[in-house]
Amino acid sequence: MKAVGLTHYLPVENTDAFLDVVLDKPSPEGHDILVAVKAVAVNPVDTKVRAPKDKVEDQPRIIGYDASGVVEAVGPDVTLFKPGDAVYYAGDITRSGTNAEFHLVDERIAGHKPTSLNYAQAAALPLTTITAYEAFFDRLGIDRDGANAGETILIIGAGGGVGSIGIQLAKLAGLTVIATASRPETTQWVKDLGATHVVNHRKDMVAQVRALGLQHVDHIAILNDMRHWETAVELIRPQGGIVSIDDTDLPMPMGGMKTKAASFHWAFMFARSMHQTPDMVEQHNLLSYVADKIDAGQIKTTMSKVLSPINAANMREAHRLVETGQAKGKIVIEGF
Protein backbone atom coordinates (compact mmCIF):
# COMPACT_ATOMS: atom_id res chain seq x y z
CA MET A 1 0.00 0.00 0.00
CA LYS A 2 1.03 3.62 -0.55
CA ALA A 3 1.94 5.75 2.45
CA VAL A 4 3.69 8.97 3.40
CA GLY A 5 6.37 8.39 6.01
CA LEU A 6 9.51 9.78 7.58
CA THR A 7 12.85 8.40 8.68
CA HIS A 8 14.44 11.65 9.88
CA TYR A 9 12.84 14.50 11.85
CA LEU A 10 13.57 17.49 9.63
CA PRO A 11 12.41 21.06 8.99
CA VAL A 12 9.42 21.01 6.68
CA GLU A 13 11.38 22.90 4.01
CA ASN A 14 13.64 19.87 3.61
CA THR A 15 12.45 17.69 0.74
CA ASP A 16 13.25 14.60 2.82
CA ALA A 17 10.94 15.67 5.67
CA PHE A 18 8.40 13.24 4.19
CA LEU A 19 8.90 10.33 1.82
CA ASP A 20 6.54 8.44 -0.47
CA VAL A 21 6.81 4.79 0.58
CA VAL A 22 5.20 1.42 -0.08
CA LEU A 23 4.31 -0.81 2.89
CA ASP A 24 2.50 -4.07 3.52
CA LYS A 25 -1.27 -3.81 3.94
CA PRO A 26 -2.20 -4.50 7.58
CA SER A 27 -4.90 -6.92 8.80
CA PRO A 28 -7.43 -6.18 11.57
CA GLU A 29 -7.54 -8.06 14.85
CA GLY A 30 -9.62 -7.63 18.01
CA HIS A 31 -11.60 -4.38 17.98
CA ASP A 32 -9.74 -2.98 14.97
CA ILE A 33 -11.31 -1.94 11.70
CA LEU A 34 -9.22 -1.67 8.53
CA VAL A 35 -10.04 1.59 6.76
CA ALA A 36 -9.36 2.45 3.13
CA VAL A 37 -8.33 6.06 3.72
CA LYS A 38 -9.91 8.67 1.43
CA ALA A 39 -8.74 11.90 3.09
CA VAL A 40 -6.59 13.09 6.00
CA ALA A 41 -6.21 16.40 7.82
CA VAL A 42 -3.13 17.98 9.39
CA ASN A 43 -3.19 19.30 12.96
CA PRO A 44 -0.62 21.08 15.14
CA VAL A 45 0.04 17.74 16.85
CA ASP A 46 1.26 16.36 13.49
CA THR A 47 3.84 19.13 13.23
CA LYS A 48 4.95 18.65 16.84
CA VAL A 49 5.50 14.92 16.28
CA ARG A 50 7.46 15.64 13.07
CA ALA A 51 9.45 18.55 14.57
CA PRO A 52 13.26 18.37 14.12
CA LYS A 53 15.08 16.19 16.63
CA ASP A 54 18.14 13.94 16.73
CA LYS A 55 16.38 10.68 16.03
CA VAL A 56 16.41 8.29 13.07
CA GLU A 57 13.79 5.63 12.34
CA ASP A 58 15.00 2.23 11.11
CA GLN A 59 11.78 1.86 9.12
CA PRO A 60 9.59 4.69 7.76
CA ARG A 61 7.32 6.03 10.49
CA ILE A 62 3.76 6.85 9.47
CA ILE A 63 2.12 9.68 11.40
CA GLY A 64 -1.27 11.38 10.95
CA TYR A 65 -4.25 11.64 13.29
CA ASP A 66 -7.32 12.58 11.26
CA ALA A 67 -8.94 10.51 8.55
CA SER A 68 -12.10 9.56 6.76
CA GLY A 69 -12.61 6.51 4.62
CA VAL A 70 -14.42 3.22 4.08
CA VAL A 71 -14.21 0.10 6.25
CA GLU A 72 -12.41 -2.59 4.25
CA ALA A 73 -12.39 -5.36 6.87
CA VAL A 74 -13.10 -5.84 10.59
CA GLY A 75 -11.53 -7.72 13.47
CA PRO A 76 -13.36 -10.59 15.23
CA ASP A 77 -14.49 -8.44 18.18
CA VAL A 78 -15.95 -5.57 16.13
CA THR A 79 -19.65 -4.83 16.69
CA LEU A 80 -20.05 -1.17 15.67
CA PHE A 81 -19.09 -1.33 11.98
CA LYS A 82 -19.16 -3.60 8.96
CA PRO A 83 -17.26 -3.57 5.65
CA GLY A 84 -18.52 -0.79 3.41
CA ASP A 85 -19.34 1.63 6.24
CA ALA A 86 -18.06 5.20 5.80
CA VAL A 87 -16.18 6.39 8.90
CA TYR A 88 -14.28 9.35 10.30
CA TYR A 89 -11.90 9.33 13.27
CA ALA A 90 -8.78 10.83 14.88
CA GLY A 91 -6.68 7.73 15.45
CA ASP A 92 -4.33 6.83 18.27
CA ILE A 93 -1.02 8.61 18.86
CA THR A 94 0.57 5.38 20.14
CA ARG A 95 -0.03 3.52 16.84
CA SER A 96 0.89 3.87 13.18
CA GLY A 97 -0.84 6.92 11.71
CA THR A 98 -3.45 7.73 9.11
CA ASN A 99 -1.15 8.91 6.30
CA ALA A 100 -1.48 5.54 4.57
CA GLU A 101 -3.72 3.97 1.97
CA PHE A 102 -5.04 1.50 4.58
CA HIS A 103 -5.13 2.12 8.32
CA LEU A 104 -6.05 0.18 11.45
CA VAL A 105 -8.09 1.94 14.15
CA ASP A 106 -10.00 0.72 17.18
CA GLU A 107 -13.73 0.82 16.41
CA ARG A 108 -14.42 2.48 19.78
CA ILE A 109 -12.75 5.73 18.75
CA ALA A 110 -14.28 5.93 15.25
CA GLY A 111 -17.63 7.32 14.20
CA HIS A 112 -19.98 6.94 11.24
CA LYS A 113 -19.13 9.66 8.71
CA PRO A 114 -21.76 12.39 8.32
CA THR A 115 -23.70 11.45 5.20
CA SER A 116 -24.03 15.07 4.10
CA LEU A 117 -20.25 15.63 3.91
CA ASN A 118 -17.75 14.34 1.40
CA TYR A 119 -14.62 12.58 2.65
CA ALA A 120 -12.44 15.71 2.63
CA GLN A 121 -15.01 17.72 4.58
CA ALA A 122 -15.38 14.92 7.11
CA ALA A 123 -11.62 14.40 7.57
CA ALA A 124 -11.33 18.00 8.80
CA LEU A 125 -13.40 17.29 11.90
CA PRO A 126 -12.58 14.31 14.17
CA LEU A 127 -9.55 15.38 16.23
CA THR A 128 -10.74 18.92 16.79
CA THR A 129 -14.31 17.79 17.41
CA ILE A 130 -13.25 15.28 20.06
CA THR A 131 -10.95 17.88 21.64
CA ALA A 132 -13.60 20.62 21.82
CA TYR A 133 -16.38 18.26 22.90
CA GLU A 134 -14.31 16.74 25.71
CA ALA A 135 -12.98 20.16 26.77
CA PHE A 136 -16.40 21.77 27.02
CA PHE A 137 -18.74 18.96 28.01
CA ASP A 138 -16.52 16.44 29.84
CA ARG A 139 -13.96 18.74 31.47
CA LEU A 140 -15.85 22.02 32.07
CA GLY A 141 -19.10 20.17 32.70
CA ILE A 142 -21.20 22.25 30.31
CA ASP A 143 -24.44 20.50 29.39
CA ARG A 144 -24.53 19.86 25.65
CA ASP A 145 -28.34 19.85 25.63
CA GLY A 146 -28.78 23.40 26.90
CA ALA A 147 -28.99 23.33 30.70
CA ASN A 148 -26.29 26.04 30.74
CA ALA A 149 -27.95 28.15 28.04
CA GLY A 150 -27.23 31.84 28.42
CA GLU A 151 -23.87 31.37 30.11
CA THR A 152 -20.74 32.85 28.53
CA ILE A 153 -17.63 31.15 27.19
CA LEU A 154 -14.43 32.90 26.11
CA ILE A 155 -12.63 30.88 23.43
CA ILE A 156 -9.04 32.14 23.16
CA GLY A 157 -7.59 31.28 19.76
CA ALA A 158 -10.97 30.59 18.22
CA GLY A 159 -9.93 30.72 14.56
CA GLY A 160 -8.01 27.43 14.56
CA GLY A 161 -9.36 23.92 14.13
CA VAL A 162 -10.49 23.31 17.71
CA GLY A 163 -11.95 26.79 18.08
CA SER A 164 -13.81 26.52 14.78
CA ILE A 165 -15.77 23.47 15.87
CA GLY A 166 -15.82 24.66 19.49
CA ILE A 167 -17.75 27.81 18.57
CA GLN A 168 -20.40 25.69 16.92
CA LEU A 169 -20.68 23.20 19.78
CA ALA A 170 -20.94 26.02 22.32
CA LYS A 171 -23.63 27.80 20.30
CA LEU A 172 -25.54 24.54 19.96
CA ALA A 173 -25.48 24.26 23.77
CA GLY A 174 -26.97 27.75 24.03
CA LEU A 175 -23.86 29.59 25.24
CA THR A 176 -22.92 33.16 24.41
CA VAL A 177 -19.58 32.82 22.61
CA ILE A 178 -16.84 35.42 22.93
CA ALA A 179 -14.22 34.37 20.39
CA THR A 180 -10.73 35.80 20.01
CA ALA A 181 -9.08 36.48 16.67
CA SER A 182 -6.31 38.86 15.62
CA ARG A 183 -6.62 39.19 11.84
CA PRO A 184 -9.48 40.42 9.64
CA GLU A 185 -9.86 37.05 7.90
CA THR A 186 -10.01 35.06 11.14
CA THR A 187 -12.34 37.64 12.70
CA GLN A 188 -14.77 37.14 9.83
CA TRP A 189 -14.28 33.36 10.01
CA VAL A 190 -15.32 33.14 13.68
CA LYS A 191 -18.25 35.46 13.10
CA ASP A 192 -19.45 33.26 10.25
CA LEU A 193 -19.24 30.23 12.58
CA GLY A 194 -21.55 31.91 15.08
CA ALA A 195 -19.44 33.87 17.58
CA THR A 196 -21.57 36.47 19.39
CA HIS A 197 -18.60 38.76 20.13
CA VAL A 198 -15.01 38.91 18.87
CA VAL A 199 -12.04 40.33 20.77
CA ASN A 200 -8.37 40.56 19.80
CA HIS A 201 -6.06 38.32 21.84
CA ARG A 202 -3.08 40.46 20.84
CA LYS A 203 -4.57 43.40 22.74
CA ASP A 204 -5.92 43.90 26.27
CA MET A 205 -8.57 41.17 26.49
CA VAL A 206 -9.71 42.13 29.97
CA ALA A 207 -10.56 45.64 28.82
CA GLN A 208 -12.25 44.36 25.67
CA VAL A 209 -14.42 41.82 27.52
CA ARG A 210 -15.42 44.36 30.14
CA ALA A 211 -16.29 46.83 27.40
CA LEU A 212 -18.96 44.27 26.43
CA GLY A 213 -20.51 44.81 29.87
CA LEU A 214 -19.11 41.59 31.34
CA GLN A 215 -17.07 41.67 34.54
CA HIS A 216 -16.43 37.91 34.32
CA VAL A 217 -17.19 35.00 32.00
CA ASP A 218 -18.51 31.61 33.08
CA HIS A 219 -16.12 29.39 31.11
CA ILE A 220 -12.79 29.89 29.35
CA ALA A 221 -11.00 27.69 26.79
CA ILE A 222 -7.35 28.48 26.04
CA LEU A 223 -6.69 26.99 22.62
CA ASN A 224 -3.59 28.81 21.44
CA ASP A 225 -1.10 29.97 24.08
CA MET A 226 -0.75 29.72 27.84
CA ARG A 227 0.74 33.21 27.89
CA HIS A 228 -2.91 34.20 28.31
CA TRP A 229 -3.11 32.40 31.66
CA GLU A 230 -3.21 35.46 33.92
CA THR A 231 -5.78 37.13 31.67
CA ALA A 232 -7.95 34.02 31.93
CA VAL A 233 -7.62 33.95 35.73
CA GLU A 234 -8.67 37.61 35.90
CA LEU A 235 -11.72 37.06 33.68
CA ILE A 236 -13.07 33.75 34.99
CA ARG A 237 -16.02 34.09 37.34
CA PRO A 238 -15.86 32.77 40.90
CA GLN A 239 -16.41 29.00 40.76
CA GLY A 240 -16.00 29.03 37.00
CA GLY A 241 -13.71 26.77 34.98
CA ILE A 242 -10.76 27.12 32.59
CA VAL A 243 -9.63 24.41 30.17
CA SER A 244 -6.49 24.34 28.02
CA ILE A 245 -5.11 22.13 25.27
CA ASP A 246 -1.65 23.74 25.32
CA ASP A 247 1.08 22.14 27.40
CA THR A 248 3.45 24.73 28.82
CA ASP A 249 6.53 25.36 30.92
CA LEU A 250 5.40 28.90 31.66
CA PRO A 251 4.54 29.90 35.24
CA MET A 252 0.85 29.43 36.13
CA PRO A 253 0.21 31.41 39.33
CA MET A 254 -2.70 29.82 41.19
CA GLY A 255 -3.51 32.44 43.81
CA GLY A 256 -6.34 33.96 41.80
CA MET A 257 -7.79 30.54 41.07
CA LYS A 258 -7.79 29.66 44.76
CA THR A 259 -9.55 32.81 45.93
CA LYS A 260 -12.20 32.33 43.23
CA ALA A 261 -12.52 28.59 43.95
CA ALA A 262 -12.17 28.20 40.19
CA SER A 263 -11.20 24.95 38.48
CA PHE A 264 -8.58 24.20 35.82
CA HIS A 265 -8.60 21.27 33.41
CA TRP A 266 -6.34 19.83 30.73
CA ALA A 267 -7.92 18.45 27.57
CA PHE A 268 -6.02 15.76 25.64
CA MET A 269 -8.13 13.79 23.21
CA PHE A 270 -5.61 10.93 22.93
CA ALA A 271 -5.86 10.13 26.66
CA ARG A 272 -8.66 7.58 26.24
CA SER A 273 -6.93 5.55 23.51
CA MET A 274 -3.44 5.98 24.99
CA HIS A 275 -4.53 4.56 28.33
CA GLN A 276 -7.24 2.22 27.01
CA THR A 277 -9.75 3.73 29.43
CA PRO A 278 -12.98 1.79 30.10
CA ASP A 279 -14.99 4.60 28.48
CA MET A 280 -13.13 4.64 25.13
CA VAL A 281 -16.42 4.11 23.31
CA GLU A 282 -17.49 7.62 24.34
CA GLN A 283 -15.40 8.93 21.44
CA HIS A 284 -17.44 6.78 19.07
CA ASN A 285 -20.60 8.09 20.69
CA LEU A 286 -19.65 11.76 20.49
CA LEU A 287 -18.52 11.50 16.86
CA SER A 288 -21.85 9.89 16.01
CA TYR A 289 -23.70 12.64 17.93
CA VAL A 290 -21.86 15.36 15.99
CA ALA A 291 -22.45 13.54 12.69
CA ASP A 292 -26.18 13.67 13.39
CA LYS A 293 -25.96 17.41 14.12
CA ILE A 294 -24.04 17.96 10.89
CA ASP A 295 -26.60 16.03 8.87
CA ALA A 296 -29.34 18.09 10.54
CA GLY A 297 -27.62 21.28 9.30
CA GLN A 298 -26.68 22.47 12.80
CA ILE A 299 -22.88 22.14 12.45
CA LYS A 300 -20.73 22.65 9.36
CA THR A 301 -17.29 21.44 8.36
CA THR A 302 -14.29 23.51 9.39
CA MET A 303 -12.29 22.62 6.27
CA SER A 304 -10.63 25.70 4.79
CA LYS A 305 -8.21 24.26 2.20
CA VAL A 306 -7.84 20.99 0.25
CA LEU A 307 -4.69 19.59 -1.34
CA SER A 308 -4.56 16.52 -3.59
CA PRO A 309 -3.27 13.84 -3.83
CA ILE A 310 -1.98 12.43 -0.53
CA ASN A 311 1.78 12.39 -1.14
CA ALA A 312 5.00 13.62 0.43
CA ALA A 313 5.02 16.96 -1.39
CA ASN A 314 1.50 17.88 -0.34
CA MET A 315 2.13 16.64 3.20
CA ARG A 316 5.09 19.00 3.46
CA GLU A 317 2.96 21.86 2.18
CA ALA A 318 0.16 21.13 4.64
CA HIS A 319 2.64 21.02 7.53
CA ARG A 320 4.19 24.27 6.33
CA LEU A 321 0.81 25.99 6.31
CA VAL A 322 -0.04 24.76 9.80
CA GLU A 323 3.37 25.84 11.12
CA THR A 324 2.80 29.44 9.99
CA GLY A 325 0.22 29.75 12.77
CA GLN A 326 -1.91 31.72 10.32
CA ALA A 327 -4.20 28.96 9.06
CA LYS A 328 -7.89 29.18 9.84
CA GLY A 329 -9.99 26.05 10.16
CA LYS A 330 -8.46 22.83 8.86
CA ILE A 331 -6.18 21.83 5.97
CA VAL A 332 -7.09 18.54 4.30
CA ILE A 333 -5.30 16.28 1.81
CA GLU A 334 -7.41 13.82 -0.19
CA GLY A 335 -6.91 10.84 -2.48
CA PHE A 336 -3.97 8.50 -3.02
UniProtKB/TrEMBL annotation:
Entry-linked SMART domains: PKS_ER
PROSITE patterns: QOR_ZETA_CRYSTAL
Gene3D superfamilies named in the record: Medium-chain alcohol dehydrogenases, catalytic domain, NAD(P)-binding Rossmann-like Domain
Organism from which the protein derives: Ascidiaceihabitans donghaensis
Protein name according to UniProt: Zinc-type alcohol dehydrogenase-like protein
One Gene Ontology CC term in the entry: cytoplasm
Transmembrane segments: none
Keywords, in A-Z order: Cytoplasm, Metal-binding, NADP, Oxidoreductase, RNA-binding, Zinc
Pfam families documented for this protein: ADH_N, ADH_zinc_N_2
Locations listed in the record: Cytoplasm
The keyword Phosphoprotein is annotated on this UniProt entry: no
Principal cellular location given in the protein's record: cytoplasm
Entry annotated with the keyword Zinc: yes
Family label: Belongs to the zinc-containing alcohol dehydrogenase family. Quinone oxidoreductase subfamily.
SUPFAM superfamilies: GroES-like, NAD(P)-binding Rossmann-fold domains
Assembly description: Homotetramer.
Gene Ontology MF, one: oxidoreductase activity
Location of the Enoyl reductase (ER) domain: 14-333
